[in-house]
Amino acid sequence: MKRLYFLVAILHLSFSSFAQLQGTLEAASAYSFNLETPGVNVRGYIFLTEKLHLGLEYTHLFEKTDHVGEEKIETSANVFDLNTNYFFELTPHLAFYSIVGLDYSRETEHVSILDEREKIKDDAIGYNLGGGFEVPISEHFAVIAEYTHTFSDLHDNIAFVGVVYEWGTHKKHGEHSKSE
Known about the structure:
Blueprint: H1 2-14, E1 22-32, E2 37-47, E3 52-68, E4 71-91, E5 94-113, E6 116-136, E7 141-151, E8 156-168
Protein backbone atom coordinates (compact mmCIF):
# COMPACT_ATOMS: atom_id res chain seq x y z
CA MET A 1 0.00 0.00 0.00
CA LYS A 2 2.92 2.34 0.73
CA ARG A 3 4.13 1.81 -2.83
CA LEU A 4 0.75 2.88 -4.19
CA TYR A 5 0.79 6.08 -2.10
CA PHE A 6 4.36 6.75 -3.21
CA LEU A 7 3.42 6.24 -6.88
CA VAL A 8 0.42 8.57 -6.57
CA ALA A 9 2.60 11.21 -4.88
CA ILE A 10 5.25 10.97 -7.61
CA LEU A 11 2.63 11.25 -10.37
CA HIS A 12 1.03 14.23 -8.66
CA LEU A 13 4.34 16.02 -8.21
CA SER A 14 5.45 15.24 -11.76
CA PHE A 15 2.79 17.53 -13.20
CA SER A 16 3.70 21.18 -12.86
CA SER A 17 1.38 23.48 -10.92
CA PHE A 18 0.99 25.42 -14.18
CA ALA A 19 -0.53 22.37 -15.86
CA GLN A 20 -3.13 21.86 -13.15
CA LEU A 21 -4.50 25.35 -13.74
CA GLN A 22 -4.85 25.30 -17.50
CA GLY A 23 -7.13 23.89 -20.16
CA THR A 24 -9.11 24.56 -23.30
CA LEU A 25 -12.71 24.69 -24.45
CA GLU A 26 -13.11 24.03 -28.15
CA ALA A 27 -15.77 23.91 -30.86
CA ALA A 28 -15.36 22.61 -34.39
CA SER A 29 -17.18 21.65 -37.52
CA ALA A 30 -16.70 18.00 -38.48
CA TYR A 31 -16.96 15.94 -41.65
CA SER A 32 -17.24 12.14 -41.70
CA PHE A 33 -15.72 10.66 -44.85
CA ASN A 34 -17.28 7.24 -44.24
CA LEU A 35 -20.83 8.49 -43.61
CA GLU A 36 -20.30 11.41 -46.03
CA THR A 37 -22.03 13.85 -43.70
CA PRO A 38 -21.10 16.99 -41.72
CA GLY A 39 -21.37 17.42 -37.99
CA VAL A 40 -20.42 19.47 -34.94
CA ASN A 41 -17.82 18.81 -32.25
CA VAL A 42 -17.34 20.20 -28.73
CA ARG A 43 -14.45 19.35 -26.43
CA GLY A 44 -12.65 20.25 -23.27
CA TYR A 45 -9.01 19.54 -22.46
CA ILE A 46 -6.86 19.85 -19.36
CA PHE A 47 -3.10 20.29 -19.58
CA LEU A 48 -1.16 17.52 -17.89
CA THR A 49 2.03 19.29 -18.98
CA GLU A 50 2.61 22.15 -21.41
CA LYS A 51 2.72 19.69 -24.30
CA LEU A 52 0.50 16.81 -23.14
CA HIS A 53 -3.27 17.48 -23.01
CA LEU A 54 -6.09 15.11 -21.98
CA GLY A 55 -9.66 15.73 -23.05
CA LEU A 56 -13.22 14.61 -23.65
CA GLU A 57 -14.90 15.18 -27.00
CA TYR A 58 -18.44 14.81 -28.32
CA THR A 59 -19.22 14.79 -32.04
CA HIS A 60 -22.71 14.69 -33.54
CA LEU A 61 -22.83 13.72 -37.21
CA PHE A 62 -25.98 15.02 -38.87
CA GLU A 63 -28.54 12.77 -40.48
CA LYS A 64 -27.89 11.70 -44.05
CA THR A 65 -30.62 10.24 -46.27
CA ASP A 66 -29.95 7.61 -48.93
CA HIS A 67 -32.44 5.93 -51.26
CA VAL A 68 -31.81 2.33 -52.33
CA GLY A 69 -34.66 1.13 -54.52
CA GLU A 70 -37.79 1.62 -52.43
CA GLU A 71 -35.78 1.83 -49.21
CA LYS A 72 -35.11 5.14 -47.53
CA ILE A 73 -32.16 5.01 -45.09
CA GLU A 74 -31.52 7.89 -42.68
CA THR A 75 -28.17 7.59 -40.88
CA SER A 76 -26.70 9.71 -38.06
CA ALA A 77 -24.03 9.14 -35.41
CA ASN A 78 -22.88 10.27 -31.98
CA VAL A 79 -19.23 9.88 -31.05
CA PHE A 80 -17.60 10.21 -27.61
CA ASP A 81 -13.80 10.31 -27.35
CA LEU A 82 -11.20 10.41 -24.59
CA ASN A 83 -8.07 11.69 -26.34
CA THR A 84 -4.55 12.76 -25.53
CA ASN A 85 -2.78 15.33 -27.66
CA TYR A 86 0.98 15.83 -27.67
CA PHE A 87 2.20 19.15 -29.10
CA PHE A 88 5.30 19.78 -31.21
CA GLU A 89 6.09 23.45 -31.78
CA LEU A 90 7.08 23.94 -35.43
CA THR A 91 7.33 27.73 -35.20
CA PRO A 92 6.17 30.25 -32.56
CA HIS A 93 2.95 30.54 -34.58
CA LEU A 94 2.34 26.92 -35.61
CA ALA A 95 2.17 23.68 -33.66
CA PHE A 96 1.53 20.10 -34.79
CA TYR A 97 -0.12 17.69 -32.37
CA SER A 98 -0.57 13.95 -32.38
CA ILE A 99 -3.86 12.39 -31.28
CA VAL A 100 -4.26 9.04 -29.50
CA GLY A 101 -7.43 8.04 -27.69
CA LEU A 102 -10.41 5.85 -26.96
CA ASP A 103 -13.68 6.03 -28.90
CA TYR A 104 -17.31 5.08 -28.29
CA SER A 105 -19.59 5.48 -31.32
CA ARG A 106 -23.31 4.97 -31.81
CA GLU A 107 -24.68 4.94 -35.34
CA THR A 108 -28.46 5.09 -35.80
CA GLU A 109 -30.25 4.09 -39.01
CA HIS A 110 -33.92 4.56 -39.75
CA VAL A 111 -34.88 2.25 -42.61
CA SER A 112 -38.24 2.91 -44.28
CA ILE A 113 -39.86 0.63 -46.85
CA LEU A 114 -43.26 1.84 -47.99
CA ASP A 115 -45.23 2.31 -44.72
CA GLU A 116 -42.87 0.36 -42.44
CA ARG A 117 -40.05 1.98 -40.47
CA GLU A 118 -37.31 0.20 -38.54
CA LYS A 119 -34.71 1.73 -36.22
CA ILE A 120 -31.27 0.08 -36.07
CA LYS A 121 -28.57 1.11 -33.57
CA ASP A 122 -24.96 -0.01 -33.77
CA ASP A 123 -22.50 0.62 -30.93
CA ALA A 124 -18.72 0.22 -31.10
CA ILE A 125 -15.72 0.82 -28.89
CA GLY A 126 -12.38 1.48 -30.51
CA TYR A 127 -9.38 3.77 -30.58
CA ASN A 128 -8.35 6.93 -32.44
CA LEU A 129 -5.13 7.95 -34.13
CA GLY A 130 -4.60 11.25 -35.87
CA GLY A 131 -2.97 14.62 -35.94
CA GLY A 132 -3.68 18.29 -36.25
CA PHE A 133 -2.31 21.80 -36.56
CA GLU A 134 -2.90 24.70 -34.21
CA VAL A 135 -2.38 28.37 -35.11
CA PRO A 136 -2.67 30.94 -32.29
CA ILE A 137 -4.60 34.08 -33.22
CA SER A 138 -4.39 35.84 -29.82
CA GLU A 139 -3.28 35.18 -26.26
CA HIS A 140 -6.32 33.00 -25.51
CA PHE A 141 -7.60 31.91 -28.93
CA ALA A 142 -6.34 29.61 -31.68
CA VAL A 143 -7.71 27.84 -34.75
CA ILE A 144 -7.23 24.13 -35.38
CA ALA A 145 -7.44 21.72 -38.29
CA GLU A 146 -7.22 18.00 -37.54
CA TYR A 147 -7.87 14.52 -38.86
CA THR A 148 -8.60 11.32 -36.94
CA HIS A 149 -9.10 7.72 -37.95
CA THR A 150 -11.17 5.52 -35.66
CA PHE A 151 -10.35 1.82 -35.51
CA SER A 152 -13.53 -0.07 -34.51
CA ASP A 153 -16.47 -1.95 -36.00
CA LEU A 154 -17.79 1.52 -36.94
CA HIS A 155 -14.45 2.77 -38.31
CA ASP A 156 -14.43 6.31 -39.62
CA ASN A 157 -12.24 9.12 -40.91
CA ILE A 158 -13.23 12.53 -39.59
CA ALA A 159 -11.80 15.98 -40.36
CA PHE A 160 -12.29 18.92 -38.00
CA VAL A 161 -11.83 22.69 -38.32
CA GLY A 162 -12.47 24.78 -35.23
CA VAL A 163 -11.63 27.39 -32.65
CA VAL A 164 -9.91 26.97 -29.26
CA TYR A 165 -10.30 29.08 -26.12
CA GLU A 166 -7.44 28.55 -23.65
CA TRP A 167 -8.07 29.37 -19.97
CA GLY A 168 -5.94 29.42 -16.85
CA THR A 169 -2.48 30.49 -15.81
CA HIS A 170 -0.31 29.96 -18.85
CA LYS A 171 2.21 31.17 -21.32
CA LYS A 172 0.90 32.90 -24.42
CA HIS A 173 -1.01 30.42 -26.60
CA GLY A 174 1.34 28.52 -28.86
CA GLU A 175 4.43 29.07 -26.70
CA HIS A 176 5.13 25.44 -25.81
CA SER A 177 8.33 24.79 -23.91
CA LYS A 178 11.10 23.19 -25.96
CA SER A 179 12.65 21.63 -22.83
CA GLU A 180 9.90 19.01 -22.32
